[in-house]
What does this fold into?
Amino acid sequence: MAGVWFWIVAAMIATYVVLDGFDLGAGAIYLVAAKTNDERRRVLRAIGPVWDGNEVWLIAAGGTLYFAFPQLYASSFSGFYLPLTIVLWLLILRAIGIEFRTHIENHVWQSFFDVIFSVSSILLAVFFGAALGNVVRGVPLDASGYFFEPLWTNFKLSSQVGILDWYTLLIGGMALVTLTAHGSYYIALKTDADLSRRARGFALICWPVQFFLTVSALVATYFIRPDIITNYANHKIGLLVPVVVVASLALMLWANPKGKEKLAFVASSMYIAFMLVGAAFALYPVVLSARDPQYDLTIYNTAAGSHGLSVGLAWWTLGAVLAVSYFVFVYRMFRGKVQLGEGHY
Amino acid sequence: MESALLIHRLHFAFTATFHYLFPQLTMGLALLIVVLKTIALRRNDPVYHEAARFWGKIFGINFVLGVVTGIPMEFQFGTNWSVFSRFAGGVIGQTLAMEGMFAFFLESAFLGLFLYGEKRLSPKAHWLSAVAVFVGSWLSGYFIIATDAFMQHPVGYFTAADGSLQLESFWDFVLNPWAGWQYAHNMGGAAITGAFIMTSVGAFYLLSGKWTAHARIFIKTGVIAGCVFSVLQIFPTGDRQGKMVTDLQPVTLAAMEGLFQGQSSAPIVLIGQPDVQQGTIDNPIQVPGALSILTYRRWNANVLGLDAFPKQDWPDNIPLLYYSYHIMVGLGTLFVAITIVASLLLWRGKLFNSRWMLWILMLSAPFPYIANTAGWMTAELGRQPWLVYGLMRTENGYSRLVSAGNGMFTLLGFMGIYMALGILGLFLLWREIDHGPAAWRDSASNLHVAT
It folds into this structure.
């Protein structure tokens, strides 16, 4: 039962990153790709009706994690106290950057919120990547099942690690480039003319960097955690992951210059989803690695009671069907390239 | 250790108190917007459509502030109260996860459609999106109340071998008897905030001589809703909740009422300052026997005082608990008086010309916020010294490895950001009110087109 919930939570996190990832990526290219007020409004309009719903996947994933693995929630949230709080602040800033900009037609007011929106989006992407890096690299858990990590120590993988070191920064950088590309594909798909062209250009520049960082991150991960391939060696189905990741990268490279915007965006979504699934596959059944493997948190020592987990499966399934149907409906309502005119933003 | 506990308590208290300023208006307005939309649809009245649209914009600004200040609440269970989460997460994780799955998805998906989709949707579908937002926000309220109810009166759990609480009966937990009345009382409070804000803006417009047609709708809707919910707030929901506290948290009742010595024919203290050291109320104005009647429905019933309980089980901030409770009840009584007089004037057709009453209605806007805040402080201070009533003390629930210094760092950060949010929110709300309901602003052309 705990294994089922491991994959449910992993799928929810992956959904969050794919969906809110394009909002963050749109924010990352926003200041440079969208130059005029009209273009900036079109970027905001492309994400405006959906960003809040996308962010709910993070909250729902958090809630589901709390429900299924309360011990993991307790250990990781208190251990990542500082970066999580900073993420909360950045989420607040990102939201008001999007929502409050358009209330006042004033250049100074709007420039201020433009910068808030873009900078908070960029930092969020880096922090989310670094968070993943921490989970893979391992944190200083001890027998109590708790830890506390400062933001950084000496940026080395010593016994006293911080949230940020060379490895987690590498993953953070990979996340930023990946989401920047992802957001660029989305903006290219949802807008037209110069803005769409510029977004495609950004994605084109991102591609080699994304490729290089992907390879470096995988090599670095193997270097610091050679046991990461154990699950892949034992279960051949896992080899599907690198195949899909490589195919997605190739598809992005092929589709983008040809102007196949939807295909490029789908490929980017596949890339993100499978990179995350691949990480989850490698870690399973570990949910938070310890620097000292004997203190690893696994699905077995963090899950809630089995009755609670079974009951949850019933309502979660219903909730997920409802949620997906709302999303299909909303995305269909706001499909197509954005037009300025009626409405907000 | 002492100071870390204090910081973590202040951290949650501050962020929760600030956060709840927004959802109470969200939930109250969601209901009233459905009322306005329904009338607009049935009568096909453009003024009602404009009224609904205007409150939709206010709702939108308020909703954003509620969302961004709400996410930290869920996170703080893990960041600041990890020992509590490990202890109780196996039970309360159910409702917190359900809130995301059932309430937030619904709310966020349909809010976008409600705010930006009016021209894409049929009038019926647009009405339906308003209903969905209402249902989502009120469901969210229930999941949070059910979570709090477990902390007030734990049911449906068992204690596992490792000492943590785990779910035993889903329905016992979700249908906690404590949650029913608390939910009714809480949602009544939210509806009162929505009603008073709507009335206040209407009164402001009438007194200013602007948008008088809309203003009358606002006042009429707000006064009727305000009256209904203010009365229900006292009876039955407030009364029943008081009874529940009497039965299940008698020490809390004694502290709320400032009853230091148990007695038969116990009085109710209307005004007076508790002196916890001496065990007395200074300068009391009291109604003899009233507390016995309210709690046990008998004039001479014996009500337990604080002296019946060991001191370590007393709520740890009795004066603040006592004042919170008295402020809530005092304001609640005032709301009944105001809305009944206003309803009578409305019924006689004199309200819109009674400038004195319009002034009162306009200036009443802040008071439901104070009453709702005081009500939550009563519930949560009354729960002390327990985090989960009878099962875990507050002093044992916070994150041991998060130092007072790190807690202070993030508390100060939240204070700074929330201050900026509060100022921004007030500023933008004022602009919308000043801008009025009759113009549909389009930021593209900056044209003000009456629709």
Notes: The two ends of chain A are 45 Å apart (CA to CA). The first helix of chain A runs from residue 2 to 33. Chain A touches chain B through 73 residues (CB under 8 Å).
